[in-house]
């Protein structure tokens, strides 16, 4: 059964190889894509897929949409070092979410002042790369198809 993973933000799709972090760039945690939010000041980050919000941190979350597979959305690179500054949680770990539900509101000012990359990797955990396709590099709106599995 095919699964569509939506873009959690509006921006520009970039390949994972363009993410300034080797763990993402080398797809060590899984395949996927990244989105550059551009010059905006605030992002509303939505659930890219329906499922259980199995992990929620200010800078990242995982939604398990299948028993053996989850989707990681990581807001920026090294933003864990911001200690939650700029992130407002709109959901709770453990809850069921629907694709498009608001998860986090991110004020990018703190990340930019700390000179952190604001690129947003979206990674499929435990995915077979052979049955996965990713949107072409270029503009994308939140809710548009970013990754397709199967």
TrEMBL record:
PROSITE patterns: PTS_EIIA_TYPE_1. Residues 21-126 form the PTS EIIA type-1 domain. It holds the Pfam family PTS_EIIA_1. It comes from Brevibacterium spongiae. It is found in: Cytoplasm. Keywords: Kinase, Phosphotransferase system, Sugar transport, Transferase, Transport. The lineage of its organism: Bacteria, Bacillati, Actinomycetota, Actinomycetes, Micrococcales. Signal peptide: none annotated. This is PTS glucose transporter subunit IIA. It comes from the Bacteria. The keyword Coiled coil does not apply. The keyword Cell wall biogenesis/degradation does not apply.
């Amino acid at each position: 059964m095919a699964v569509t993973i939506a873009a959690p933000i509006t921006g520009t799709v970039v390949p994972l190889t363009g993410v300034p972090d080797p763990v993402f760039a080398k797809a060590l945690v899984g395949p996927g894509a990244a989105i550059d939010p551009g010059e905006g000041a605030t992002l509303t980050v939505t659930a890219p897929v329906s499922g259980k919000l199995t992990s929620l941190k200010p800078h990242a979350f995982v939604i398990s949409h299948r028993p053996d597979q989850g989707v990681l959305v990581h807001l920026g690179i090294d933003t864990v070092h911001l200690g939650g500054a700029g992130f407002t949680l709109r959901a709770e770990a453990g809850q069921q979410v629907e694709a498009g539900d608001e998860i986090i509101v991110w004020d990018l000012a703190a990340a930019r002042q700390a000179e952190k990359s604001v690129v947003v990797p979206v990674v499929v955990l435990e995915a077979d790369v052979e049955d996965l396709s990713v949107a072409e590099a270029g503009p994308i709106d939140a809710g548009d198809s970013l990754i397709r599995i199967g």
